[in-house]
Amino acid sequence: MLGEDLAYESGRILGSMCTKPHRFAAHVYGKYIEKNLGDPGLFPATQQIERETIQMLGTLLGKSDVAGHIVTGGTEANILAIWAARNLSKTKQDEIIVPASAHHSFDKAADLLGCKLVRIDLNDNFQVDISAIREAISPRTFAIVGIAGTTELGIVDPITELAEIAEQHNIHLHVDAAFGGFVIPFLEKAEKEKLEFDFRLSGVSSITMDPHKMGMCPIPAGGIFFRSEGMASAISTNFTYLCGGETTHQTIVGTRSGAASLATWAMLKHQGRSGYQKIVKRCMELTYQLVAGIEEIKGLEVVIPPTMNVVGIKSDILDIDVLAQKVREMKWAVALFPKHIRVVVMPHVKAPHIHGFLEDLRHITETIRR
Fold first, then answer.
1. In a 10 Å sphere around its CB, with 0-12 CB exposed, 13-18 middle and 19+ buried, how is residue 312 labelled?
2. Range 8-18+273-369: architecture per CATH
């Protein structure tokens, strides 16, 4: 029945921000699959390991004493951040300022919480327009969102400037680093320093960062991180009926995978900083090979030089929808946006896959141009 499913190890899934989990992380997940953090009184050691996991990831994000949880994914994490920001706001505020590049999870958050999204256009570098953010702030604004690794192109918004604005107006700044959170900290030093986005900036209140993307952990392993326990407690719900005794939830779901936290903890210990640096370095090297190959194909170009391992492919002379259709007919799974094709060079992608894709892309482009 699964014969029609694509497999990451084929190397032909080029449009996804997820990947095949590391075999060690998958082993740990399978071994402890019955652990339920929704009832932590039954699994106190698992709860303690989740706390250590959040601490380790918080250190990666510039602050070890953060609050948070391993959750189902970036969507739940983003909703939790906006939920907390709404509850922490002092007055009847109901507007969230987001970039035009914001993930659709913020639409879900606004709908669920009865809030209004104020969308801000992007500048020529596909970052949110800072001057437009300043103009959009009103007495109804309770949160600003910045992206560190946009869905479309992997762009990082000017988070430093957003943090200054948030502090100036005493507004919650949430950074959606679902993808970039496991990339930026492991880039070369010069590149990393240009992309400040985390708790080292005092105006950043919360961050989303997904271990099941570039962290190579099994799904579901998203991450939500708050600067303080006080922020996280704004969405606390108490329960008394559970088998393990009274407990508090700060997540949307009740029953929650403990195996995901254990696998993430194990993977962080197994790889360490050096291991993830090697993964990111290899992905970036392949990304630059892909960009160089695209630039040699007549009629194609990259939308913008990549910030991380996400590449947008556009054409001024070819119909991008037709191009994507032909690419997919050759069994390459790419993502399609209104003006470009997106390729994400994840850890399952190897050099032969990049070369094969470029060869097919060149052939398809020549065929369409005839």
1. buried
2. Alpha-Beta Complex (3.90)
